[in-house]
Amino acid sequence: MMIMKFLPSKALIIKINLVFLACFLVAYGALLLRPSTSVYHEYAASLVCSLRECHHKGEGGIKMKAVLEERLVVNEAKAEKKMVKREKPSFLNEMGRGMKIGMVNMEGEDISEWKVHGQIIKVKFEKVSKLLEWKELFPEWIDEEEEMDGTECPEIPMPDFNSYSYMDMIVVKLPCKYPEEGWGRDVYRLQVNLVAANLAVKRGKKGWNNGNRMKVVFLSKCRPMVEMFRCDELKQREGNWWYYEPDMDKLTQKVSLPIGSCKLALPLWGKEINEVYDISNIESSTKISRREAYATVLHSSETYVCGAITLAQSLLRTGTKRDLILLLDRSISKPKRAALIKAGWKLRFIKRIRNPKAEKNTYNEYNYSKFRLWQLTDYE
C-alpha cells in the first residue's frame, strides 16, 4: 500500500522536470540563433538601415552621399520658400553702402537684398518667457520706502552686446498684436524694443563717420514705443517701415533706468538703513545747461501729499538747481497746497483725464492725468 501511494508523486515530479528542461532548451536555442549586434557595430560604416532591413552601401558610399545631399538641397529649398521677401524701403538707397547692419528678430525674412548695403550682423537673443506678465513689470503697488523688502524686477533676456562689433544701422522686426485686447502690454514687444534701444546705445557708432547719426529701422504695423523712440526722431515712414535717428544721449539715459515700476529708479533711502539716499555725487557731476525740472502729479486724493512734501525736501537737500513742478487738481485742499508750496513745489493746476477703460471709483480711474506732464513744454 505504501509503494502504490508514492508512485503518482514520483511521476508528477518527473513530468515537471521534463517541462523545465524543455523550456531551458528552447530559451538556449533562441539565444544561439539570435544574430550578434557586434556584427553591425563592426561594419556600421558599410551598412545602411531602413525601417525594414539593413543592406550594404553602394560602392564607395557615393549613393548614400547623393541621397543625403539631395535631401539637404530639398530642405534648403523649403526653408527659402518659407522666407518672406519684402520690398526694401526706398529711403535705404539714400544711406549708401559699406555699412555694418545689425539684424534683430529678422528670422523668416529674406534679407539677401540688404547685403548690397554692407555687412549683415545677425543679433541673437533669448525670447522672454510667455509666463512673464505685464503686471509683474508694472505692479499696482510697490513698497516705495522698502519697509518689507527691496524692489526687484523680473529679468528680461538681452543679447551679449560685447560679442558684436559696432554698427551703423539696426534693422528690427517688431511684433505687433494690434488690434487684440492688451496689445500695448505685450512683454515680447517690450523686449524687442529694449533690445533695439540697448543695441543702439552699446553698439551704435554714435556719430562716427563724419557725423552720420545712428540709424534704427523698424518693420512693424505698430509704432515703436514712444517711451524710447520719440516722435521727433522719426525721419521717414514707408508702409510698415519706420526710420529713426535717435538722440543717443537721451536714449542712453532711458536704457539706464529700470525696465518697469517694479523697481525704483532712485530709492529715497539707503538699502537696509534709515539714512536718506545720498545723490550729491550724482548732482555735482551733472552740468545743467538747459532748463530742467523734477515734476510729478497729484490728483483725486490727498493721500500722497505727505509723500510729495518728503520728496521735495529730499531733492532740495541734494542741492539741485532744477525746478520742482507739481501738477494737481482742485481736489487738493488749500491748507495742503500751502504746505506743498512751503516744501518747495511750484504748483500748476490741471484738469484730470479719465481712463476710458477704468471702472468708476477705482484707483486708476484718472491715471491718464499723468499725460499732462507732456504739456510742460517750457522745460527741456
UniProtKB/TrEMBL annotation:
Domain of life, source organism: Eukaryota
Species this protein is from: Nicotiana tabacum (Common tobacco)
UniProt cross-references to Gene3D superfamilies, sorted A to Z: Spore Coat Polysaccharide Biosynthesis Protein SpsA, Chain A
InterPro entries from the UniProt entry: GNT1/Glycosyltrans_8, Nucleotide-diphossugar_trans
GO molecular function, one term: glycosyltransferase activity
Keywords noted in UniProt: Glycosyltransferase, Manganese, Transferase
Protein name: UDP-glucuronate:xylan alpha-glucuronosyltransferase 2-like
